[in-house]
Write a structure and sequence with these properties.
The chain is mostly helical and 108 residues long. Helix content is 67%, strand content 11%. β1 and β2 form a beta hairpin. The longest helix is centred in the C-terminal third of the chain and has 38 residues.
Length: 108
């Protein structure tokens, strides 16, 4: 089953899991230690992230390790980029307005 990336990142616990996985590859047990919820609950979140292809799993002996899928994370960043550019432009214009207001106030 393939899941929608944005549905997957809508949940704060799943976003927290992604943040942890930016730091290092982790096992489900290691991830679960960072949350108050049960290991099963964390496993369900990992499953959703895996189905959305945001996280990949790798078997090493008996352990399963999870790591970010940078290609899929880049899809999110690429989708957000036009919005970021728009916000930067608006903030830049706002900065100019505020500077002009300060200059006029000090010029009196």
């Amino acid at each position: 089953m393939k899941r929608d990336v944005f549905q997957a990142i809508a949940d704060p616990t799943r976003r927290a899991i992604l943040v942890l996985l930016t730091l290092q590859t982790m096992t489900p047990n290691a991830l679960a230690e960072h949350f108050d919820s049960s290991r099963q609950a964390v496993s369900k979140h990992i499953k959703v992230l895996t189905e959305a292809q945001l996280v990949k799993q790798e078997q090493a002996g008996r352990e399963i390790y999870y790591h970010l899928n940078p290609k899929k994370m880049k899809e999110i960043a690429d989708w957000l980029e036009p919005f970021r550019l728009m916000w930067e432009s608006k903030f830049s214009k706002l900065d100019n307005v505020l500077k002009n207001l300060k200059t006029k106030q000090h010029g009196k």
